[in-house]
Amino acid sequence: KEIGAATFGIEGQRMRAFEMLALRKHLSDNAIQDAQSVLSGPRLNKSGAEIELLERAIEITETSLHETLEVIRTGMSELEIKSILVQRMHANGADDLAFEPIVLAGPNSANPHGHAGEHRLAPGEPLLFDFGASYGGYNADITRTVFCEYASEEHELFYNTVLAANALGREISAPGLTCDDLDNRVTDVLRASPFAKFVVHKTGHGLGLDVHEAPQVMAGNFTALEDGMVITIEPGLYKSGDIGVRVEDDVLITPEGARSLTGFPREIQFVGGAA
Question: What is the pTM of this model?
Fold first, then answer.
């Protein structure tokens, strides 16, 4: 069919290749413009219906993690654990996975965005989960780090440092606070610790139809938080060859402050043991 618009705006990050090719049969490249920046504005503040979908996605995610932790045994591989997690998400009602789940054990956990492999969980090792269910088009995104059987004193301090940064981020998030301020104050907790050199990434990002959307909670972004925004708070520390810890929550900004949509326990947890 003929397309009469002089300029055609697209959401480039979500458009599939065949859709772009179909448009190019009818429009010149100059007539196709990326409208991502135009569309991201209305998506900043979630409606009640959108929040309900996010809450359902999070409920599926957290239930699936509970069920997965219950069956983990020492010696399981990252891939085995990931397979259980994915199966539970589908069984619990996920429409899809929000993204490819990250399940990393031992020193692999120090890679913030690594991929599950054949490493087998050993006593004393951390086990990091970063994953989410998609429901009704909306995505959950949470991270929890647990330990196999026990944690060393240093690893426990490492974990509690990240937990303190996460707690501060959830406490201070409120309308009017800029993303820059939030990132700096959360990161200051990490940098005031003995593990300052192991900080490698920003504090968080917006969440909704996309796993990563505006606003970016990072230094230099002076966007102020507003009522209805949903963001992640995900501080982390990563010591190469040893341990990575990240604790990530999804929070809704309200006039009274932040309301955590995620409720999965944050205190240090232990899994594993003999079959």
Answer: 0.88
